[in-house]
Amino acid sequence: MGAPGTDPVGRPTVRVDGVAKVTGAARFSSDEPLANPAFAYLVTSSIARGRIAGFRLNHASAVPGVLDILTYENVGRLAKPAPGPDGKPSTSTLEDARIWHDGQIIAIVVADTYEAARAAANLVEVDYTREVPSAGFGSAGAMTEPREAGPAGNPQRGDAAAVLATAPVRIDASYSTPPQHHNAMELFTTSCAWDGPQLTVYEPSQSMWGSKASTAGRLGLDPDQVRVVSRFVGGAFGSKGPNPRTAWVAIAAKRIGRPVKLVPTRDQGFTVATYRAETRHHVQLGATPDGRLVALTHEGWEVTSRPSGYNVAGVESTARMYACPNIATAVNITHADRNTPGFMRAPPDTPYMFALECAIDELAYALQMDPVEVRRVNDTQTDPVAGIPFSSRSLTQCFDQAAARFGWGSRSAEPRSMQDGDWLVGYGCATACYPSNVGPAAVRLSLSADGKAQVALAAHEIGTGAYTTVAIAAAQGLGLQVTEVTVTLGDSNLPPVAIAGGSNNATSTALVVAKACERVRSQLAQAAVTSPDSPFHGRDPASLRLENHALVGSNDARESLQDAVGRTGQRLEVYAENVPAGLPHGAMAELMQGKFAMLGGTARKDVTAYAFGAHFVELRIHRRTCEIRVARVVSAFAAGTIVNPLAAHSQYMGGVIWGLSSALLEATDLDTSAARYVNKNLADYLIPVNADVPSIEIIMVPERDTRVNPLGIKGIGEIGIVGMNAAVANAVFHATGKRVRDLPIRAEKLL
Ligand code: MOS
């Protein structure tokens, strides 16, 4: 490491790929040039439940330029069913005649041009055998059952029911959150090209090795026959992993003997990809008059498709948030005639922490206590479920720093007591959290005698700044400038990295890059100490470090990289694998088979690892129209080592903005009689625009965590959104005295 303040890690760094992105040079998947491509267009089901009785394709086939029409009748047996996001059974697409949900892929038209494919798709006629669909919670025919709990089960401790019955202060409330759909800028595109037996897939992906394994498995290929390329992703958020579409596009390309490009439309994205399902919650809190929790229960309900057991089960987090001796949790899933849901930014924590953090606010008012104080008295350094320490937990520091900056002290406690002309003013706060997950990873890294480094691994740039994070980690380890490191990502031919999900990416890639850099240092040091022409001849190789373009010794002797690397050749290349402590050695082999090999922050035996934060919101609600305007937000986060504070600031802000959206705007509307989404476009599916996004201040609370992992990185991808919806809802209550427990909160719920 160099002089204080000069380390690449922790220094704000502009993105190494920034210029490429803003100039259009960055190549997104559907930009990849293909030789003589044909174009695919999806035909989707117009009913939600039943069977296909028959197709009439004569009009569609007659459209000039149409090359092929794929249906279950001609290709159904060519691919195995695609698993859901949990790797288990899910709805089918072209495998058979079954219709599981509205908007299901039932045919794919391939033509010389996009326009011909689209025109023909509109002429595909389908006869259905219809059944009455169930849309979700409360629909006749929907089937609710307890979720299949994983190894940890649903967190339990003590006897929550008995203690609740006699608790001096009690809260008993139900909350709900709506379905939300992924609307990243980049659509769910897939291009496939064959070269003999070799298949190349250009697809936005946050799991390239997963996608490679899944596609190979479905097509009966050897994984080595499949290469997935995804150099840049225009927003993923959990939606861009292995999916049902890829194999069919590959089959289409094989059948016509040409590369095929599929770009589904925005509205198709609502039903051919995954989404955040609606949830319901029942929370009970028992407390002493001084605000200490004595019992907590949290039962959740989530919607999924008929065949899938996918669920997010955020009780894993809510049960661990506060010191509490008696805890009971449960999660149920409701099977309906819907597409299978999947990951969406902080999948468990966004809905479940909404319920808990609103309930804690309700408890504060019942106790006539400051909501910040309630969180302070229940703060803990020990995971109440597992009984082991948090690796570090700076929740109170986050509340203190954000409260001071926000001016929380000027709040008048009484609801509806702060006004500004015709506007009711509300202050609200809530806790943010996200588990610190980490995965195995491998990397190829080289250092040249001219002081340039090359790093290659199949990590994913999903908008978070992964190229830059990797460059920073390598610059740190090799004693170089960030600009001297060239990073290659986004190709499954490169060494594998876990899925870019669960906020593990920065941690997992930085750990393996650090390991590779150490290997380089060690080899250079070894060569130096055994070389008579080196100033380090005869020294202890462990005492040498790479710093400022040189091999440096403890007595400040230095040898230039030109000499140190030159001694071993023009370029020193290493390959390194890292399996984080706590994962079995087999984790690397699993990763190479495209499996989900990650160590969760709640799955460790030594510590429970989470990042924490605190959100503070001021909003204004017009006393007559009930128009809701957010005025300002101050959020503080402590997430261990921050690799790139500049990117982290943006990532936190993005999370806060999505949290505001989740609280006040976003919801997919369902026509419950047809089990159909009705606002499948960006005019009717509300997301925030600049005028909805007020001043947002981000505070990064310094935190040094020596237990979470050797680099102290906790990951920040998702925490920004968590709890933000509750902070807004709590501010709405403070402004109006009205508790809205059902998201999103719109004016009509306040009238
Ligand atoms: Mo995320 S929902 O882990 O991309």
Please report the total strand number as a whole number: 32
**What value does the average pLDDT take?**
97
Helix content: 10-25%
* Class from helix and strand fractions: alpha+beta
Describe this structure in words.
The chain is α+β, with helices and mostly antiparallel strands and 751 residues long. The longest helix is centred in the C-terminal third of the chain and has 25 residues, at 505-529. The termini are far apart. Bound molecules: dioxothiomolybdenum(VI) ion. Residues 206, 236-238, 343-345, 347, 501-502 line the site of dioxothiomolybdenum(VI) ion.
Keywords:
seven-stranded mixed β-sheet, alpha+beta, binds dioxothiomolybdenum(VI) ion, 751 residues, globular, 18 helices
How are the SSEs placed, and which strands pair?
Blueprint: H1 18-23, E1 38-44, E2 50-56, H2 58-61, E3 66-70, H3 72-75, E4 98-99, E5 105-111, H4 114-121, E6 125-130, E7 143-146, E8 156-157, H5 160-166, E9 169-177, E10 180-181, E11 190-195, E12 198-202, H6 208-219, E13 226-229, H7 245-256, E14 260-262, H8 266-272, E15 275-276, E16 279-287, E17 293-304, H9 315-318, E18 327-335, H10 349-367, H11 371-377, H12 395-406, E19 419-420, E20 423-435, E21 441-448, E22 453-456, H13 466-478, E23 485-488, H14 505-529, E24 545-547, E25 550-552, E26 558-560, H15 561-566, E27 571-578, H16 587-592, E28 610-622, E29 628-638, H17 645-664, E30 670-671, E31 676-677, E32 695-700, H18 724-736
Parallel strand pairs: 1-14, 12-13, 17-18, 22-23, 29-32
Antiparallel strand pairs: 1-5, 2-4, 2-6, 3-5, 7-18, 8-18, 9-16, 10-15, 11-12, 11-14, 16-17, 19-20, 20-28, 21-22, 21-27, 24-25, 25-26, 28-29, 30-31
Helix pairs in contact: 10-11, 10-18, 13-14, 17-18
Dioxothiomolybdenum(VI) ion is lined by residues 206, 236-238, 343-345, 347, 501-502.
